[in-house]
Write a structure and sequence with these properties.
About 40% of the residues lie in helices and about 15% in strands. The protein is an alpha+beta fold. The chain has two domains: about 240 residues, no CATH class; about 270 residues, Sandwich (Jelly Rolls), CATH 2.60.120.590. Helix 12 packs antiparallel against helix 14 and helix 13 packs parallel to helix 16. The two termini are about 35 Å apart. Bound molecules: 2-oxoglutaric acid (AKG). The site of 2-oxoglutaric acid (AKG) has 11 residues, from strand 11, strand 14, strand 18 and strand 19.
Length: about 600
């Protein structure tokens, strides 16, 4: 039996005298496979604060940060000319250098700055040469490229999704600023996919046939027949095929870059879209009167933007983004506005010389950002006169962003818990029984360090990247995901709950009641064990504090009650650890000092 909670030196109502509440459910244990990539993500790293925790694993964090930075180019500022640096992108076939296209100086401009501050539109004298030179990889298909049935089905599906209330504003975080998106969105995609952008993980409604049927059975309406999710999947297939064709048609062979077809496809990257992030944008006038009024584009004076300048994040390197859009005019008899070109996509190169572009998009057109276009350009959406849907088909990263991944992390962490429980029991009996050999102590300390670190990583990842991300988006979001995600988040919460108990056992291993040596020479964990545990607990405490601050942000006040954050995972009297870990951290610091004194006394 482990010590009662009060003896840990901080107050919790009930201690870890029970077995893990949640040996994962059968569904989870079925997948007891070795983790494929082994490496836990920088667990919670995207959300972690920068307090004193940073000092302990500073180097490690820096490395992890560098690794994760590649995926998110959103709103990064670059100095003029910086765009001419080659960046290396990792692809399944290794690292491929990605060079920005050559820059273009307007013939009428005397300086780079003047050229870079200009905007070209189709029909301008230098539009075509500029696009060919500096915007390679941008391609627009006119509406006629897709079949009429495809257009009609897509328009019907988007309208049903709107009627079903599937579109919501995402509340994003950039630095300390928390703000809702101007547009409303929904993510649809492969089973178990999520998409992480601007510190928010959004969860895909699965377009898998079985999940569509399960959704219908569970009473979560997926709308009329055919299900809009199925229609989006079909649109996705159509755009995959079309993207492959566009990639083929737009390959350029240069003399020093003689391409075999495999070399060419290496640069083409994937167009095997696994998610569609669908945006619903109100007409400019209505959007400007809304709770989240549009802002004017400030760099070029392009007017109200529904999506401001950015490059897309969390995409597989060199992968294509295909954007299909359709406009509706509520005032017109025939709602679908076929000839509307009031919506524009704006593009800019990041080289400090090339003019920006303002490209009108006829309703039902599709545009493509091919290969590494997204790495060297930003895009924005300039609001038009009608309601608009844009279905953005992407090849999102999958390493750390699928349910399979986090399930593997949890299964592996939960598997280590029995060992930790035994170690906690041993540590307790040693404290009572006196002397153990130093060797035994060293092995114990090393094993404890490893288990604490792995458990801490998994615990932070599942709590901050998954469970809290899910509930941050509110009760209505949870209901909308009843068919697939809610149950899975429940499984992850069970695993997290077991990990909380594991962390308590790790604490138990480190407890030093009095000064050992006064009553005999008990087991003393080493300094690293304490530092590691302090790191793990402080990281959780800081991330929780940051999360609560974010959830309390005024940005949520603009949303209906049902879309506001839910404080989960929940803590109860019987929880192994309290939600506020500061007292535990203080106790750990005391034990560390006592252990150090005891060690010094021994010398
Ligand atoms: O709607 C569009 O054309 C693009 C939307 C976009 O940039 C985004 O969703 O990130």
């Amino acid at each position: 039996m482990l010590a009662p909670p009060s003896s840990l030196g901080f107050t919790v109502a009930r201690g870890p005298t029970r077995a893990p509440r949640s040996t994962p459910r059968p569904g989870m244990s079925k997948a007891h496979k070795r983790p494929r990539d082994g490496a836990a993500r920088p667990a919670g790293a995207r959300e972690e604060g920068r307090g004193k925790v940073a000092t302990f694993f500073a180097a490690k964090k820096a490395r992890r940060k560098a690794e994760s930075a590649g995926g998110d180019a959103r709103e990064k500022k670059r100095a003029p000319g910086a765009g001419s640096r080659a960046v290396e992108a990792r692809s399944p076939r290794g690292k491929i250098p990605s060079r920005p296209p050559p820059s273009y100086r307007l013939s009428t401009c005397e300086t780079d700055d003047a050229s870079a501050a200009s905007v070209l539109r189709p029909g301008d004298d230098e539009y075509e040469p500029c696009v060919r030179r500096a915007y390679a990889g941008f391609h627009v298909d006119p509406p006629e490229t897709l079949a009429r049935e495809t257009h009609d089905a897509a328009a019907g599906a988007f309208e049903s999704m709107r009627a079903l209330g599937m579109f919501h504003r995402d509340v994003l975080a950039a630095g300390n600023v928390v703000s809702p998106t101007f547009v409303r969105r929904v993510l649809v995609g492969e089973r178990g996919m999520t998409y992480h952008y601007q510190k928010l993980r959004i969860f895909a409604h699965s377009w898998h046939e079985q999940d569509i049927s399960a959704r219908a059975r569970s009473g979560v309406s997926s709308g009329p027949d055919p299900s809009p999710l199925r229609v989006v999947r079909e649109l996705n297939e159509t755009l995959k095929a079309r993207s492959a064709r566009v990639l083929k048609q737009t390959r350029v062979t240069t003399r020093d870059d003689e391409m075999t077809s495999s070399h060419a496809s290496r640069h083409d990257g994937s167009c095997d879209f696994n998610v569609a992030l669908i945006n619903l944008m109100d007409a400019s006038a209505a959007a400007s009167r809304s709770d989240v009024p549009l802002k004017d584009e400030s760099r070029y004076g392009m007017g109200p933007t529904s999506v401001s300048w950015h490059s897309d994040s969390s995409l597989q390197p060199f992968s294509t983004v295909a954007v299909y859009h359709v406009c509706f005019d509520e005032r017109a008899k025939n709602l679908q506005k076929k000839n509307d070109s009031s919506w524009h996509v704006a593009l800019r190169a990041l080289d400090g010389r090339t003019p920006a572009l303002r490209v009108p998009l006829p309703s039902r057109a599709t545009y493509y950002m091919l290969r590494d276009f997204n790495a060297h350009h930003h895009h924005a959406v300039l609001a038009g006169d009608t309601r608009r849907y844009s279905s953005t088909h992407r090849v999102a990263v999958v390493d750390k962003d699928t349910f399979d991944h986090i399930q593997r992390v949890c299964v592996s962490a939960v598997r280590s818990l029995p060992e930790l429980r035994e170690m906690a029991a041993k540590a307790k009996s040693r404290r009572k029984e006196l002397a153990t050999s130093a060797e035994h102590g060293d092995a114990f300390s090393a094993r404890l360090a490893r288990l604490t670190q792995n458990l801490g990583d998994a615990h932070r990842e599942v709590e901050f990247q998954w469970i809290r991300m899910f509930w941050l988006q509110g009760e209505e979001h949870a209901r909308a995901h009843a068919a697939y995600w809610r149950e899975r988040i429940g499984e992850l919460t069970q695993a997290w709950d077991a990990m909380e108990l594991g962390l308590r056992w790790a604490l138990e291993c480190l407890r030093v009641d009095g000064v050992p040596g006064a009553t005999g020479r008990g087991f003393l964990p080493n300094r690293r064990n304490y530092d590691l545990a302090l790191y793990v607990f402080s990281a959780v405490a800081e991330a929780r504090e940051a999360h609560f601050k974010r959830a309390a942000s005024a940005a949520y006040a603009k949303l209906p009650e049902t879309q506001r954050p839910v404080r989960k995972p929940a803590f109860a009297e019987t929880s192994p650890l309290p939600e506020n870990l500061r007292p535990a951290i203080a106790a750990l610091a005391r034990w560390k000092t006592r252990a150090e004194r005891a060690r010094a006394g021994e010398r």
